[in-house]
Amino acid sequence: MTESAQVDPVEAAADAERRLLEPAVRSSPELMASLLHPDFREVGASGWLWDRDSVVAALSPEASKALPITASRMTGVQLATDLVHLTFDTETGGRRAHRSSLWRLTDGRWLLWFHQGTPFDAEVARPDGVRLAQPDGPPAG
């Protein structure tokens, strides 16, 4: 039985997303590659553009000792039989980001196809995540 037949698609994608945040995965090119679609693209919270090969090449054993990444407010919706969209926030070492991921069912497995991270400052955001001000400017209208 395939993964898709056993588990709700949103739950399966969310489980895979949480695995990507684990230090053991973030330090292992093999484990990371196993969760990324061959056509994977990312717009990182840093502003850098990444593809599957560049993400895997950037991994190092030291990543297993990095600060933990905490995910919160994860929600998802199935957009098509083979596509799930997840949104969530992360925090690591005081840095926060809103995140959006698209997961595609490929050969019976959910693989990360696209990801974007956008930094945010909790001091200028409402609890629902809507920004109240620009980082160095007046409150938004």
UniProtKB/TrEMBL annotation:
Domain of life of the source: Bacteria
Pfam families recorded: DUF4440
Domain DUF4440: 15-112
InterPro entries, A to Z: DUF4440, NTF2-like_dom_sf
Organism: Streptomyces peucetius
Full protein name: Nuclear transport factor 2 family protein
